[in-house]
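Honest question from a wet-lab person: if I give you the sequences of every part of a complex, can you actually get the arrangement of the whole thing, not just the pieces? Trying it with mine:
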Amino acid sequence: MIKGAWWKLTSAVLVLYGLIAGFSFDVPRLPILNESIRNLYFHVGMWFAMMALFLGSSIYSIRYLRQGKVQDDQKASGAASVGMLFGSLGLLTGMLWAKFTWGAFWVNDPKLNGTAISLLIYLAYFVLRQSMEDHTKRARISAVYNLFAFAIMITFIQVLPRLTDSLHPGNGGNPAFSNYDLDSTMRLVFYPIIIGWIGLGYWVLDLRQRWKEINTKLNDNE
Amino acid sequence: MSWIKLTQLSLLLEWRNKSALFNSLLYSVASTYIASVLLTNQAGVQVWNGLLWLLLLFNALTACSSSFKSETGNRYLYYLQWIHPSDLIISKLVYNGIYCLLVSWIQWVLLFFFLGWPGGLIGWHLLCISLGAIGLSTVLTLTAGIAARSGNNMSLMAVLSFPLLIPTALLGVKASILIGVEAEVESFRPFLTGNAGMTILSAATGYLLFPYLWRD
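Yes, you can. This is the full assembly:
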């Protein structure tokens, strides 16, 4: 984890700025979307934070397999569970948005399939972790599963939306960002708040790790 | 022992025993027959392909879940000392690939026999199914290894592998429906190459990760 408090402060400021600016700045008036376009700052931000945390989780898993430190295993599982939290929030914000724009909470869409498999994969990861008592064995085997699953998930999320049409903007041939109907005021809020959410995710992870460390120390003293 | 020898050994043992093969065969016949009775011979391209992939998914799962069943106890210790884990995983990948390929063809022929084939382009369709079967087997080989190392739990195997099988199954079913309705080659080719790419990727990651899984 990065040392110091500067990145935590920066991300808090960025999220705060995003919250205020996101609700007060002007947004383009688009049919169907209307004011709900402001959800972009929150819904997409959640996914960015989730992917950043899952990436972090697999980097910690690689480090565990190479060096075998217990902390890396704890961080890998911690990052996965914080990522799950952000994933669930992204799903909730997305479902609300879908209800108001597409008319249903859940539709058959490549992006939603990707979401479903990523959440299922990490739920399976936690089931796998709980099925083993031995600590080193659990750490090693779950690290292997984490990396294998991450590789498949990333390819699936990156490949399939390019092949089929999606209700999401920018899909059906090109999932790039330039296709979003972002005007310059929206970019002014969107990019900072994305960085802010990612930073906030890692801050939550940091707090979780410290809380776990304190708990283990307290249990050792008893 | 090289991976070729190991694969030959697994195939030979399977051929002498034949229990797993008969198990898969009987499973295919029984499930296809039930499906044909329930559908009363009126399956369109969509239903036909959905059914085929569903049966294939479960059949591949049962076939591959016993991949590492014999490598326990003394045999495990022997393998640990004398066989490099990379050789072992390659032999398992090849063996499961051949096995699932056979199973998928049997499944296809059975469905053809009971329900007929409502679409066209049989050659492409068989290619699509074969690619899918190999793709399923590569993912299942590593998850079978994980389930085996964590204590041979059958339900764990299903929990671990289903989310990872969704990509292959989705790409496969989309391609096979497009083939069934005789769409143009350009429309379904990306799905086939996508599936082949997924297979190569999962085989490569499995190959890289297996040594960490295998040592104790």
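Two things worth pointing out. Chain B has a mean pLDDT of 86. The CA atoms of residues 140 and 184 of chain B lie 32 Å apart.
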